[in-house]
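go over both lines:
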Amino acid sequence: MPRLSLPSFSLERFRRQLASVDALPQLCVLGVVSGLVTGAVMVAFRLLLELGGVLFMPGGDHEAFEGLPPMVRSSLPLIAVAIIGIFLWRQPAAARKLGVGHVIERLTYHQGRFPLRNWINQWWVGVTTVLGGLSAGREGPAIHLGAAAASGLGQQLRLPHNSLRVLVACGTAAGISASFNTPIAGVIFAMEVVMMEYTIAGFMPVILASTMGALVAMLVYGSEPAFQVPSVSLGSLMNLPWIVVTALFIGLLAGLFIHVARSERIAGLPVPLRLALVALATATVGWWFPEVQGIGYDSMEAALAGNLAVEVLLALVVAKLLLTAITVASGIPIGIIGPVLVVGAAAGALAELLGAWLFPQLEMEPGFYAMLGMAAMMGAVLQAPLAALMALLELTHNPNIILPGMLAVVVSGLTARQLCRCDGFFISMTRHGLHPLQQPLMQALSRVSVPAVMERSFVATPRMVTRDQARVLLDARPAWILIVRSSDDKPTLALKAADLARALMDETQEAEAVGEEEDALIDLLEVPGLRLEMAPIHHQATLSEAFERLNDQAVDALFVEQGRRPKQQRISGIITRGSIERYYSLK
């Protein structure tokens, strides 16, 4: 009987397609899959938090610290910090890097490859910090878990590194989307904060991933927005000057937060002292103001509805801001996005109360300034104005707030950057000055892997060959001759095949003139022509990795190795400095 055959899917062909800069359909497939994976991871993380609330918190709400006796809620930070100190600080420093900062670092210096140990640590550390009453959020852990899961999928399939970078952005967007039910904000956050670039090839798979992440979350939690907020509008244009003043104040708060979080005085303290500082400070404030503990979304909803007392708002603005910053400065890996939103909402609500007292003629709707404060604080701390505006729009479902939101976000962002001299929080947490992900050359070279540019026409040979062997090499019509002169059979020099052909012709004519034998050896190191020093690079590497390796090794060419095990690796191509420069000039 004839055998039925389905269209074959070649994983190796899929990898080769992904190596190119225009592999948009393949990247979109990865976006859908990574969005589903990240959505499931985010739901699992939220369910863990809810399970902890059911087991330990009144009413099964993991945010209900107000319902606990003062002694109990003040003990929780002591226990949480003790657990983190015992189980996390025994591990190497590299294993203690978690959250969004770790995602950006792995994307910048490791092409989006994540260690498994850090991913496992993020699960229990994220749950411990939130349920333990520290001022911590769930979005940072969710982004790390989602980005690492999506990247891990690519690593298991041995995809080229340029596609791993897109998978990291997909996981980030889906994590934000599944957390807040804000798919557009997830996309903008991934491109603005993590990738730090906007490209069509990057946008489309990230949009698909964010959509899939939101759909997975909707299947479990429904399609309602993350927060129930009132419908508000600008009202009188006389509010605009007070919005500017409010945004200026919030920008200063953002600058204070970043400076404290980067404090070298706190970071320079001994580890036990740092951990004790965080535990005791949180426990002390939590005794009197439990609203500062945990993420604080319940307090933020109350602020949006205008139901918080002035002293609670002050505690959220001052104490929660400082507790979050001190925790970060002490080296405890926490999510900061949730607390930043809570602080911003409280600051906006305070500004609304003060404005109503100073200017009773202004028409101020309850919750209006709290919403603006959320966006202004997020935009200023992250230096991500578009992500903040999209989050504001999707959280409120109110397009009327965009105009005043734009004003507030710009003013607060400029204040933090210009008056407080602060970069974005996650940029400042990695490196001062221009971040590598912001460099146009490295951005362009990171979008494509070496198989898309490398020269595949080559032959490898020892240094000494006969004329007949040289002719056999040239019969294959290679572009390059790779000269092996080491004991491990690795080529170290590259010679243009045209130079060998020219030299062979001259050698043959001279040999015929003097009657020399055909089996005389030719030393390829003596052949007139340009020889390029070579170093190895893996076929999954991006052109940015190749460019850096060329500079680090001080060579002009790389031979591309393919294979997972050292003894099974084969050379699949050669890439020169000139080929990288030609690619960049054409793009």
Summary: Confidence is low (pLDDT under 50) at residues 1-8. The longest strand covers residues 531-538. The CA atoms of residues 469 and 519 lie 9 Å apart. The radius of gyration is 29 Å.
